[in-house]
Amino acid sequence: MFSVGRLPLPSEALLYQYKELGAFVDCYYVDIACSITQSEYIQAFYTTPIFKLERWILKWAVSKPSTDQQAVLLSEAKINIFSAWVVEQQSDNQLLMCDYSGRTRSWLMIEPVNQGTRLYFGSAVVPESGGIEDVRSDGRRKRARFFSAIQGFHHCYSMALLASARSRLLKNIKDTD
After folding, report:
1. Containing domain of residue 137, as a range?
2. Cα separations (Å) of 4 from 28, 58, 76, 165?
3. How many domains, in total, are found in the chain?
């Protein structure tokens, strides 16, 4: 997990529009020493053991079940709803998902680097009037206490998700050799 880092959100990121709106956004990355397609990344990300736990929680907490087969279909752009998310935008190297409440976004992107691929993962929490963020007197947004309280967990969880996806991809490559 120590190979996962943080970067400023790239300006070409589909998630960038939310940064411009004043939403909380983050951007994590990890490099992998091989060529990975966006489809492989999406499939690996949403089928890791750690993400399967999140899927299980969503199934029982908000009646939004999903399967590994649906993750494959999502990775092939054959479906646009996956558990609690709807595809908001998609390109050859990016996927932007919106949760069913419309308050959060989840973003995946790949980019070729050196002899491999950079995997990106980011999130956005969209401001809502009187909701998760309020505007300070200086015009800056302040986050509600609940979001501030879980921000440390969110950071660790995001890093774990990305590290888990990287491990899954490396395992898949090793299994095909």
Report:
1. 5-176
2. 7, 26, 26, 11
3. 1
